[in-house]
Amino acid sequence: MAAATSELRVDHLPSDPLLHILSFLGFRDLIHCSYASRRLNELSKHNPLWKSLCSKHWLLTDADRLQSGVSWYCLFKQYYRDLGRYIQYYPVLKRAWEQLKSFLQQRCPRMIASLKEGATEVELNDIEAQIGCRLPDDYRCSYRIHNGQKLVIPGLMGSMSLSNHYRSEVLLDVETAAGGFQQRKGMRRCLPLTFCFHTGLSQYMALEPAEGRRMFESFYPCPDQTAQDPSAIDMFITGSCFLEWFTTYVHNVVTGEYPIIRDQIFRYVHDKGCVATTDDITVSVSTSFLPELSSVHPPHFFFTYRIRIEMSSGASPEAACQLDSRYWKITTSDGNVEEVQGPGVVGEFPVMTPGKVHEYSSCTTFSTPSEYMEGHYTFHRLANKEEVFHVAIPRFHMVCPPFREPVVRTQQKASTSFTPRLDDHDDDGEYCDGDGDDFGDLRGINMAALEGAWCPRHI
């Protein structure tokens, strides 16, 4: 007798297990399934499936769906028609923008107020036609969310204040960026991302792999001051693409890596291991590289560092003390060691009492791409001036960003040799931030790095 056989049909399966299986599919596979049979076509439009996909790809909430007045399936289609080309970037960039705005809302509200509404597809297409170059999709996606910021201070992309030098970078809107699009030799096909009113310096994005640059990487230009050719421009690399550049910056802001000081974002980087405690006093250090005061040729790298000295709130009142002097041991990457000592810190002799915090900033320059510093402060007790003791300063490293030489220099190296030359330091210990271009020059052809007088160590 022949064995009984039966055919298993999708139409005969219960809905729940089928919906469970469909919940593991991406939106493309879900759409493909809708063409397989009438039953799957009906199930593939199940609202909870598309609610999950709307949340995943567009970060939409129940409130967004209620406001739209349509089903989750229709809402997904609406967003896909408008932003579908950016679907791999949108959730990452949208989340970064939301995190940044949420973090700054209570800390730097005027920065939030400076953000511009997103650009349209038509506006971005017009910009591409204007500059004759394609904008990367991650850049376009971010600018669909927010079209940069108004030209105000402080800038969204970070500030720095030191002695007589101040800088603050604005995230440019796409129209202003297009006005500064570069076609000159040495900077061909480069679009400015940021602009600093005070130094005239911008970060750029390379829209084509030309003159030693890689496609879509971001960088600070740095003119080679030893070359006769003005197109010899070195690059301090800040990111491999817009997505990495922007999301890394946002991460540093929202995690507190970059401190908020006086309603501004300061781009100091703090190594969490860079802390030393001596008895009741803790010293921590953060550092920042300033590209506008640095150069690759001649080798001159400028760093500022911020030091926090704190006495424990649980310390005895008898532990109160005053800083008398500082000692530094500075080691460069080529093995040279320099020792420096002097009274106070930046002209001050702070008194430390239980719970007291003293912070100050200083700077240093060196001719190698990296160095580290360590040392100690000398204190005396207020109750007994004869009681003198040292407080350790943790070792902290300063490493300049990756840099690349232009093609014109690598071609010259093949035929000639080059000996680096260091500029003489000013005798007065002060430095100048140079003559930066004013904002009108942003739409011109010269947005090269700031050229100014170099400064000696401030330690």
Structure described in brief:
This protein is of the alpha+beta class. The chain has helices at 15-22, 27-33, 38-43, 47-58, 62-68, 72-83, 90-107, 109-114, 121-131, 137-145, 174-179, 242-254, 407-413; strands at residues 115-117, 146-149, 159-162, 165-171, 190-192, 194-196, 204-206, 218-223, 233-239, 260-261, 264-265, 269-278, 281-289, 301-311, 321-332, 337-343, 351-352, 357-366, 370-381, 388-399, 403-404. Helix content is 27%, strand content 29%.
Q: Can you tell me about this structure?
A:
There is one protein chain. The protein is an alpha+beta fold and 459 residues long. Helix 4 packs parallel to helix 6, helix 7 crosses helix 10 and helix 7 runs parallel beside helix 12. It contains 13 helices and 21 strands.
How many beta strands in the DSSP annotation? 21
Q: Judging from the principal axes of the Cα atoms, what is the shape? A: globular
Structural category is alpha+beta
Helix content: 25-40%
Number of helical segments with 4 or more residues: 13
The description of the largest β-sheet is: 5 strands, antiparallel
Q: Topology of this structure?
A:
Blueprint (H helix, E strand, L loop, with lengths): L14 H8 L4 H7 L4 H6 L3 H12 L3 H7 L3 H12 L6 H18 L1 H6 E3 L3 H11 L5 H9 E4 L9 E4 L2 E7 L2 H6 L10 E3 L1 E3 L7 E3 L11 E6 L9 E7 L2 H13 L5 E2 L2 E2 L3 E10 L2 E9 L11 E11 L9 E12 L4 E7 L7 E2 L4 E10 L3 E12 L6 E12 L3 E2 L2 H7 L46
Helix pairs in contact: 4-6, 7-10, 7-12
Keyword list:
459 residues; alpha+beta; five-stranded antiparallel β-sheet; 27% helix; globular; disordered C terminus
